[in-house]
Predict the 3D structure of the following.
Amino acid sequence: MVHEKDAEILKALYKSTAFTVQAIYYDQMGTYIKQKAELIPVLQLQEREILQTGIMFMKQPNMAKTGFERLSELLFNWAAGLIIKYKTELN
C-alpha cells in the first residue's frame, strides 16, 4: 500500500508505472510499443489492469479519492510480484 494517502502521489506512481510496463514488455518480447492503447491488448492481465488504471487517471483525476485502498493495493501487489519474479530470474 502507498503509506501516504495522497491521491496525487498515487496518480504519479501509476503514470510512471506505464513506462515500466512498456519496458517490461520490450524486455520480454523485443518489441517496443509506444502507444499505450496498442500495448493494452498484448499485455498479461495484471499489467493490462495497471496500464488501464493509469490511463483512467488521466480521464478521471479524482478516481484515487474514491478507490485509494484498492488502487494502492493493486499497484503494490504488482510491484511485489515483479520484484519476486526478477529476483528469481537473477538467481
Residues 63-90 form the longest helix (28 residues). Residues 7-85 form one domain. The chain has a mean pLDDT of 88.
